[in-house]
Amino acid sequence: MSGHGDAQPMTSAKCGPLKGMASVPGDKSISHRSLIFGAMAVGQTRITGLLEGQDVLDTASAMRAFGATVTRHGEGAWSVNGVGVGGFQEPADVIDCGNSGTGVRLIMGCMATTAMTATFTGDASLRKRPMGRVTDPLSLFGTQAYGRKGGRLPMTVVGAANPVPVRYALPVASAQVKSAVLLAGLNAPGQTVVIEKEPTRDHSERMLLGFGAELTVEKTPEGNVITLTGRPELRPQTVAVPRDPSSAAFPVCAALIVEGSDIFVPGVSQNLTRNGLYLTLVEMGAEIEFQNPREEGGEPVADLRVRFSADMKGIEVPPERAPSMIDEYPILSVVAAFASGRTVMRGVKELRVKESDRIDAMARGLEANGVKIEEDEDTLIVHGMGAGGMPGGATCATHLDHRIAMSFLVAGMAAQKPVSVDDASPIVTSFPIFESLMNGLGAEIRRG
Ligand SMILES: O=C(O)C1=C[C@@H](OP(=O)(O)O)[C@@H](O)[C@H](O)C1
Ligand SMILES: C=C(OP(=O)(O)O)C(=O)O
């Protein structure tokens, strides 16, 4: 679905303590993959806890267009009757992935080695994002892609009729590119190898194993070497999607900066490829207790008790941690504004090719709210003003980016004057209950 309807301005004002339980929705990465792997298995995959955000709903529609039967049975409860590896039918219409980089890149991967043609598009944000990072490795399988200048959507992908397996070293730390190559490798005979220097989220590897693929991950001095044997018969699974740590970041960070807060956030992933924000917050002096560590839906999780933390200090975030917290830098930069001293985020240029240029969007919005910022192509530095120190009072542009919208609404909860966003409508892509959940904890977010 392209666009998010009319712009929805929102304003968040300084609020009293946040209290209570913050149960965030299912993980977006795992939700996309449940639908896609389910569509490539033979038989019925059942899913609970699926994120019903627009990004995932667009992937569900795409899987239907490729011939899978995707059914909603109740809140978060879905089934997918898959057509098997290589069993996709050619879609009769353009595939619209809306706002979702994960959706479009993984789906390009999973049709790339089947003899068919599909055309992809998305909203104004997705149409600006680079697809060459996926179509370059897919061309090694024999796939062809014809997009707009700069490898942009809309793009027509012609799947390889006689795919060959590939060996590919990722030039960027990207789980989307890694996953697209692995998905394409499923329908290529022989072994496809992906080498990643820096570990990125490993949900595809974990889930492919769960669906019965033959896959190994070898840790070497060059990085992780992932070897997948093509043409498996994937077995349908029962998938319980765990809660999304990238969504949990918003109530967690809000509680850290709003005076007197004390909240409980159940089931937050401790997967080492996703937990960089939580390590960073603890290093800054955040009061977070990690309780009841356990496995949920195949992921290590813990319950978090989070309290207002008056004395957080800025730190240098280790650049090698970036892949494990890539979506969390916008909200971290808000926490940094309420810490004392500088928070230095280096090695973050990937943020420039997300739903928006997130370095620029955060820098401009924080500056407008009275925070001093330094930036270069690959770096964002926030000069903290201490607890309660951000003046606020500005309206921030969200550029069709859900995480920018949520980050500034969290800033408004603790700033001296209300913070507004020009358009909060993209929040539905990843965290449709954000407004009600935060207001239920005590936030004062209002429309307009
Ligand atoms: O594979 C995934 O599910 C994702 C990978 C990341 O993107 P990149 O692979 O482009 O870094 C992340 O930003 C995105 O939200 C989800
Ligand atoms: C970058 C993100 O998603 P995607 O790349 O799937 O659009 C995100 O959710 O922050």
UniProtKB/TrEMBL annotation:
Family: Belongs to the EPSP synthase family.
InterPro entries: Enolpyruvate_Tfrase_dom, Enolpyruvate_Tfrase_sf, EPSP_synthase, EPSP_synthase_CS, RNA3'P_cycl/enolpyr_Trfase_a/b
Catalytic reactions on record: 3-phosphoshikimate + phosphoenolpyruvate = 5-O-(1-carboxyvinyl)-3-phosphoshikimate + phosphate
Sorted UniProt keywords: Amino-acid biosynthesis, Aromatic amino acid biosynthesis, Cytoplasm, Transferase
Protein name, per record: 3-phosphoshikimate 1-carboxyvinyltransferase
PROSITE patterns the record matches: EPSP_SYNTHASE_1, EPSP_SYNTHASE_2
Annotated positions binding 3-phosphoshikimate: 28-29, 33, 174, 176, 327, 354
Organism, as annotated: Tabrizicola oligotrophica
GO molecular function: 3-phosphoshikimate 1-carboxyvinyltransferase activity
A cellular component term, taken from the record's GO annotations: cytoplasm
